[in-house]
Design goal:
Elements (H helix, E strand, L loop, with lengths): L2 E6 L6 E2 L5 E2 L5 E2 L6 H6 L2 E2 L2 H10 L3 E6 L6 H10 L6 E4 L7 H12 L3 E7 L2 H5 L6 E4 L8
Parallel strand pairs: 1-6, 1-8, 6-7, 8-9
Antiparallel strand pairs: 2-5, 3-4
């Protein structure tokens, strides 16, 4: 029997954060606020799905974070989660790879699904649409109940 992996996006899924995408006059997006450790640690508020992450972790399932944030902030993500009772098996940060976040997330999910039954929770429908077919996925909003 395959193990279960519960994979959660961070922003808008487990936490409401204040980081905003900044569009420059050139039309390019900058994500500097997504690398701000202070903002993440002090301006993030847990959403109800965090209870699900704690519950499945307490049942012995593996919890993963799959975020579009850059790797420079992974330690702050781990600190924030630990503060709220979640110790993920691994934190995947795909923001360093470029702008095709849905494709990068799909690659990671596909790899996890080789050995586990994967349940993926994300607030961005583009990320969910790019998921491999063998992934169980859930579109969440900040008001999504976990039960």
């Amino acid at each position: 029997m395959k193990r279960k992996a519960f994979v959660f996006d961070l922003d808008g899924t487990l936490f409401e954060t204040t980081a905003k995408e900044i569009i420059l006059a050139t039309g390019m997006a900058r994500y500097e606020e997504f690398a701000d450790v202070h903002m993440l640690l002090h301006e993030s508020f847990p959403l109800s799905l965090l209870d699900l992450a704690r519950e499945v972790q307490s049942e012995g399932h593996e919890v993963y974070i799959l975020t579009a944030r850059n790797s420079c902030i992974w330690k702050a993500i781990a600190t924030l989660l630990k503060k709220h009772g979640v110790t993920p098996h691994y934190i995947f940060t795909v923001g360093d790879r470029g702008y095709d976040v849905p494709a990068y997330k799909a690659e990671i999910l596909e790899q996890l699904a080789k050995d586990m039954n994967v349940y993926f929770y994300d607030d961005d429908i583009k990320n969910l649409d790019a998921c491999p077919l063998n992934i169980k996925k859930m579109h969440v909003t900040k008001n999504t109940p976990w039960r």
